[in-house]
Design brief:
Two copies of one chain form a homodimer.
Chain A: H1 7-10, H2 13-16, E1 19-24, E2 28-33, E3 42-46, H3 58-78, E4 83-88, E5 97-103, H4 125-141
Helix pairs in contact in A: 3-4
Amino acid sequence: MNQNNCFYCIKDERLSNLMIPVCTFSTSTLYLFKDQRYPGRCVLACDKHYNEIFELSYKERETMMQDLSKVSKALKLLFHADKINLAVYEDLVSHFHVHIVPKTRDGFEWGKPFSDEKEKHFLEDAEYQDRINKIKMALQDIDI
Amino acid sequence: MNQNNCFYCIKDERLSNLMIPVCTFSTSTLYLFKDQRYPGRCVLACDKHYNEIFELSYKERETMMQDLSKVSKALKLLFHADKINLAVYEDLVSHFHVHIVPKTRDGFEWGKPFSDEKEKHFLEDAEYQDRINKIKMALQDIDI
């Protein structure tokens, strides 16, 4: 998938079927993953189309990692997670983005990688909006 | 697992059974994963015991992410990877470390997360050493 047909760049229904925008940072955009099997699961996507972490400029990477840290802290507190899992895969979707997955000891796949192949858990629109509002508010209080 | 029984801190046989040191950076240590199912698979572990990305100081995170980028580029070139996968899990091993996993289109689990539950591929000692030497040399040539 190159930049011309990348759904993170085009932002078409392939993106909106998977996730909902939460907020924008200076170099990245935060999305709430529609499959909320892991409550609070989000994606932080770089605004520019890069394939690998080393393609970002020093400044872009530094800024995005700062925002990733901020989001991780906010999600950990908000969803009472015992651990935040982070993953950059992109074998098929070649646009730099990080999966941010709050895990709990008594929740799904504790001690194993989070999975997209298990039963999905979708919410009502109002529930997504409520979760998004809570994340935005939590982010305001985070200082790292 | 707290700092007192953390194998990344103590560096006992629980660590040496899993991985071999490649080199040290200013805030982290690079290890070659003994299971080389994904050729070139490494772990970059923070030298200090932190549980989450947001616990690192700004400077520590910035430095470690720069070194992570450098290693990712070196491994991509050296092992002719089509994509570098990165993952921070640590549900059970609470010491900040990043799995760096070169993937190829015609290799294992392309388009899916890398797995620790599939058949492992161990090398002879001399093969590990050869791979380590090549990674160290490749790192010398990387400028990002």
